[in-house]
Amino acid sequence: MASQASKIALAKEMLETAESNIRSAKTILNDIAGSPQDKNKKLKEAAEELSMQDDGEMKIIEGIFDGQNMIGPKQKNYPIPANYASKSKLVPGDVLKLTVKEDGSFVYKQIGPVERKRVKGLLTYEDGQYKVLAEGRAYNVIFASVTYFKAEIGDEITLVIPEHGESEWGAIENVIPKTQEDKSSSKNDEF
Prior knowledge:
Largest sheet: 6 strands, antiparallel
Order of helices and strands: HHEEEEHEEEEEHEEH
Strand content: 25-35%
Oligomer: single chain
Radius of gyration: 20 Å
């Protein structure tokens, strides 16, 4: 039993070292390739080409989802309710239409989804943000999705991401249920 506990401790230490190395490598890559803000530049440029209409009673604004907000014309940010983004499985690059009604209420509608792909990864929590580690990358996910799916750190997640280009964000599609064997082994891992 002590041998198993020492193997677990060693494996945890190895994972911590690997995660630290990954963070360092990401920092180096961001220095070379640009920060996440630079990546959003393309989304902001695309949003400039979208329309805005105001007929006095309501405004209709088109924009691009960046992972958390809608970027509209003139690079103005519009907050997207987390529950809507989660339920609609929005991913960066999706085109949205915002209708601002006369009473001030906001109604969002997805009008141009980008091409998507699905990847599987593990849910983690780092730097105050839930992330899914998939295909050697960490994708931010919306907290509302984590709570909706009752996901826990270490769960295997099906994540929806844009088919093309780099993205910092993904949308949780499902939590892959643990088998009875998985549940038994995780109980043995607890100290």
